[in-house]
């Protein structure tokens, strides 16, 4: 089912968010707009739903799923600790195009793939995504496309690739330029940028107050 959530029809938006929240809670997949490209998501704590997401994309466990959150504080319950540099980056760039890799809390009952004890978290700058995340909690979210195909920049583009594997499509209009998030790994002794995207290397370095390396 496709719901138009990008216009002025509040009733359609609310109906879409309610349907998407219900789908996530029942272990189904949803497509949602984000500030980069459209995302394919599910409950981060439902291992069967996570496997369904990987299957829908044709993606292996060797590429673990990132987690989207709806607030700054949510990350505190997901990771072992939030170091000072992570706090600085969150305050500077969330919501927005910066993903942070941290050791996840060992007590969490989830299976996002072969994560080696880490989790990549981000808060997206999109009102529909944030509203859904605040309703259902952290979601495992990947780009809404089949593996090896271009990420979808519209809900219809996502539907053409993913079809009936998705219960609810939230159509927020075209996503704009498909710029990937910048990924900063804070699991080591020094910040390491795994991918430079929406946030520049120089901006990351300025915020954390130290030289930042780009992974080779």
Automatic annotation (TrEMBL):
Task: Quote the cellular component terms of the Gene Ontology held in the record.
Answer: cytoplasm
Please provide, alphabetically and separated by semicolons, the GO molecular function terms listed in this UniProt record. Answer: ATP binding; double-stranded RNA binding; L-threonylcarbamoyladenylate synthase; tRNA binding
Residue ranges occupied by any YrdC-like domain in the UniProt entry: 14-199
- Write down the chemical reaction(s) this protein catalyses: L-threonine + hydrogencarbonate + ATP = L-threonylcarbamoyladenylate + diphosphate + H2O
Q: Where is it predominantly found?
A: cytoplasm
Q: Does Electron transport count among this protein's keywords?
A: no
Q: Name one GO biological process term.
A: regulation of translational fidelity
Keywords annotated in UniProt:
ATP-binding, Cytoplasm, Nucleotide-binding, Nucleotidyltransferase, Transferase, tRNA processing
Write down the top EC class of this protein.
transferase
Q: What is its EC number?
A: 2.7.7.87
- What compartments host this protein? Cytoplasm
NCBIfam families in the record: L-threonylcarbamoyladenylate synthase
Report the family membership: Belongs to the SUA5 family.
Q: This protein is called what?
A: L-threonylcarbamoyladenylate synthase
Q: Which organism is it from?
A: Allokutzneria albata
